[in-house]
Amino acid sequence: MRRPSLAVLGRVLLGASLALNLVLGGLLLMRDRSSPSPNPRRLLARVERLLPEADRAAFEREVAARREEMAAAERRIRQGLAPVRDAIGAQPFDPAALRAAMMQGRAPWNDFSNLFDDTLVRALSAISPEGRQRVAQDMPGPDRNRADPDTAERRDGDRDHDRERTGQDGRKTTH
To answer: Domains in the chain, ordered, with CATH?
Structure first.
């Protein structure tokens, strides 16, 4: 079996790192444990809820200016999943074909990531220092002493803490 070149290996590692960063970034900014996975729209909505009204309007204007472009980029990501799905389900299974499909599908992810990053930077640039401070304080990290999201200490927009949820074991829980 032929070993992949360093250039190919570097591209694969870069793509995997980018995907991991997107997932981790979303997890860091999103604490809604009822959602199945990070979602850029939920992340942006969460940031908007943290902001004072004047900042919220400025943030939303910047996001709205790129909304159609981001939706088109998300559609390209979904379209790029078909070859990956086909390669996973192929009989006989061909790991090289799966790797090639994943590499090809990475381009739309990279495009979306760059677009999302640029949109977020523009939107955060349009708000006040106080608004950016609120967003920074909401982000988890080892140096942050903020309230646990499952406690009664909630920010505006997080008032759903008493709703019923179904746990992994199927039993109803109240948070």
So the answer is: 8-138 (1.20.120)
